[in-house]
Amino acid sequence: MPNSNRGDYGSEFASSEVPFSPSFMSKKHSDINYFLIFIIIIFGVAIGNLISTFVVAKAVEYQAQQAMAEAAQVMQRQNREAQAQMNATAQRNAALLEQQQAALRAQRAADPNGVRLSQTCAEWRKADANLNSYTTQTELAKSCARYDSYVMTGIYPTAK
User: Fold this and answer.
1) Rounded-to-integer distance, Cα 136 and Cα 128, Å
2) How is 90-115 classified by DSSP, letter by letter?
3) Other Cβ atoms within 10 Å of 143 Cβ, number
4) pLDDT at 27
5) Which residue positions in the chain have pLDDT lower than 70?
């Protein structure tokens, strides 16, 4: 019969011994395999550690992917900005170069060699307009090509 002070523990607990006391455990439940419980606990802890390691690895992988994507976006933005700056610089340089070349051409056209070559070209143009012959057309082309070459390059043409 169960003792009313201790609650109803069943027939095996009807004795005067307290459950889970050393004398109770050693006598009545010696068939409990403590080694099996130990192995189950170790297995549970190991599985828990593996799962937590897997979750942490996935979280780190996600963070690494996000960081790489952000770095790629920053690099693309910086590349676009650098390209825009290079294009602007190239345009400024091209405009400056064109201005310098135009100034050099004007300077060459106004120097004594340029004036002399320009006058020769103009004389052959006038002669070609009056005579309209093969010779005047040929000499007009030669003299104007010499003038254009001198104005463009600054190298005085020699007669061939």
Assistant:
1) 5
2) HHHHHHHHHHHHHHHHHHHHHSHHHH
3) 20
4) 45
5) 1-32, 159-160
CA distance from start to end of the chain:
140
Chain segment 41-87, per-residue pLDDT in tens: 999 999 999 999 999 999 999 999 999 999 999 999 999 999 999 99
Distance CA 90, CA 93 (A): 5
Give the pLDDT of residue 32: 64
CB atoms within 10 A of CB 151: 20
Give me the helices (H) in the chain, please: 22-28, 34-110, 112-131, 134-153
Burial class (CB in 10 A: 0-12, 13-18, 19+), 150: buried
Distance CA 56, CA 6 (A): 48
Global confidence as pTM: 0.49
- Rounded to the nearest 10°, the torsion over CA 79, 80, 83, 88 is -140
